[in-house]
Amino acid sequence: TSSLTTTDPQIAAAIADEVVRQEAHIELIASENYASPQVMEAQGTQLTNKYAEGYPGKRYYGGCEHVDVVEQLAMDRACALFGADYANVQPHSGAQANAAAFMALVKPGDTILGMSLAHGGHLTHGAAPNFSGKYYHAVQYGLNTDTGEIDYAEVERLAHEHQPKLIIAGFSAYSRIINWRRFRDIADAVGAWLLVDMAHVAGLVAAGHYPSPIPHAHVVTTTTHKTLRGPRGGLILSAHGDADLYKKLNGAVFPGQQGGPLMHVIAAKAVAFKEAMSQEFVQYQQRVIDNARAMAGVFIERGYDVVSGGTDDHLFLVSLIRQGVTGKDADAALGRAHITVNKNAVPNDPQSPFVTSGLRIGTPAVTTRGFDEADCAVLAGWICDILDALASGRDSANLEADVKAKVAELCARHPVYGPATA
Ligand code: PLP
């Protein structure tokens, strides 16, 4: 058989370019990571060919005996890893896991209460352009803009005022420990379901370095590709012990939201769950947190505002309001130096969501490639140098070129999958 390079050189070249980019750029997007070669090996198999609508032992297609083994292992491992007694490994993505959870728990038009996108929630937690904001009556809570931490008193007040049927806790940009118990108490007080979307911290939770929402939430959703370091995908978990709820969740995934499961991705999820049970993974997650703290510390030393004053997880937000620098400009300047971050809205942000006055910085990917606290502190210093230049209005072209050269050196010292050649 011919290789892709021969049969489809255009796609092969774009993939090769992306491999080089991943090796040669520093990845600080908090939701990204590098899956292991074994996760990618499982995903690149003949399992992609198989239709398996239904669930293990109850399929709508023949020939499912081997994929049944795969899906059962994935479910069992997910339950063991997170201390759940229900797992659905079929959601194609985090957004679809949330859509299925909503479908199982509430009806269109019902009131839901989630964290606003501008304050660190996800689109699927009730944002206007998303299904969650269109099909439900979405009320949104946010941060206390003085402390940068979740305003639980506001959550409680909004819950009593609006009597939601569903409360969503979880985030895409929050650097502190969430008090899951407090959310459950608020949900119980108004008779609402509590859905926790732990997509960002699932790896930290699996390793025991971030409190688990499983004992507190009725339903927990997550992606499998962020700190958890698996293939792109979604997962639904519960330990509520409610067979009726589990049946509704299964029905909401298939046939409610999806057709056939992606069995090659489910195999890769199973591989990732096994990896996450290892001691190496537990140590990795500790290094992720240590590295985030090391970086946040440098920003603070250099006079930058870190939202909430620091971090307890894998990410932190830098507010550039005082410096008058936009997230958009900072993101672009760092990109020219081969440092990938993302612009992010911060509390009291005067700029639009497309421009913003902040950066979100996360350490899961750099930690996977072996950066230690010293590397991270040096890296944070380079970022501050570039931000200083932007804040003073100096031309930063030479500085960016200088940092880009140092980035290349640091990346070469810590290959992700191995040396890549352009
Ligand atoms: N939930 C949270 C908290 C997220 O941060 C994200 C993605 O960034 C998602 C859900 C959506 O996941 P996906 O991109 O797989 O749909």
UniProtKB/TrEMBL annotation:
<comment type="subunit">
    <text>Homodimer.</text>
</comment>
<comment type="similarity">
    <text>Belongs to the SHMT family.</text>
</comment>
<keyword id="KW-0963">Cytoplasm</keyword>
<feature type="binding site">
    <location>
        <position position="117"/>
    </location>
    <ligand>
        <name>(6S)-5,6,7,8-tetrahydrofolate</name>
    </ligand>
</feature>
<keyword id="KW-0028">Amino-acid biosynthesis</keyword>
<comment type="pathway">
    <text>One-carbon metabolism; tetrahydrofolate interconversion.</text>
</comment>
<dbReference type="InterPro" id="IPR015424">
    <property type="entry name" value="PyrdxlP-dep_Trfase"/>
</dbReference>
<keyword id="KW-0554">One-carbon metabolism</keyword>
<dbReference type="InterPro" id="IPR015421">
    <property type="entry name" value="PyrdxlP-dep_Trfase_major"/>
</dbReference>
<dbReference type="InterPro" id="IPR049943">
    <property type="entry name" value="Ser_HO-MeTrfase-like"/>
</dbReference>
<feature type="modified residue" description="N6-(pyridoxal phosphate)lysine">
    <location>
        <position position="226"/>
    </location>
</feature>
<feature type="domain" description="Serine hydroxymethyltransferase-like">
    <location>
        <begin position="5"/>
        <end position="383"/>
    </location>
</feature>
<comment type="function">
    <text>Catalyzes the reversible interconversion of serine and glycine with tetrahydrofolate (THF) serving as the one-carbon carrier. This reaction serves as the major source of one-carbon groups required for the biosynthesis of purines, thymidylate, methionine, and other important biomolecules. Also exhibits THF-independent aldolase activity toward beta-hydroxyamino acids, producing glycine and aldehydes, via a retro-aldol mechanism.</text>
</comment>
<keyword id="KW-0808">Transferase</keyword>
<dbReference type="Pfam" id="PF00464">
    <property type="entry name" value="SHMT"/>
</dbReference>
<dbReference type="InterPro" id="IPR015422">
    <property type="entry name" value="PyrdxlP-dep_Trfase_small"/>
</dbReference>
<protein>
    <recommendedName>
        <fullName>Serine hydroxymethyltransferase</fullName>
        <ecNumber>2.1.2.1</ecNumber>
    </recommendedName>
</protein>
<comment type="pathway">
    <text>Amino-acid biosynthesis; glycine biosynthesis; glycine from L-serine: step 1/1.</text>
</comment>
<dbReference type="InterPro" id="IPR001085">
    <property type="entry name" value="Ser_HO-MeTrfase"/>
</dbReference>
<feature type="binding site">
    <location>
        <begin position="121"/>
        <end position="123"/>
    </location>
    <ligand>
        <name>(6S)-5,6,7,8-tetrahydrofolate</name>
    </ligand>
</feature>
<dbReference type="InterPro" id="IPR039429">
    <property type="entry name" value="SHMT-like_dom"/>
</dbReference>
<feature type="binding site">
    <location>
        <begin position="352"/>
        <end position="354"/>
    </location>
    <ligand>
        <name>(6S)-5,6,7,8-tetrahydrofolate</name>
    </ligand>
</feature>
<feature type="site" description="Plays an important role in substrate specificity">
    <location>
        <position position="225"/>
    </location>
</feature>
<dbReference type="GO" id="GO:0004372">
    <property type="term" value="F:glycine hydroxymethyltransferase activity"/>
</dbReference>
<dbReference type="InterPro" id="IPR019798">
    <property type="entry name" value="Ser_HO-MeTrfase_PLP_BS"/>
</dbReference>
<keyword id="KW-0663">Pyridoxal phosphate</keyword>
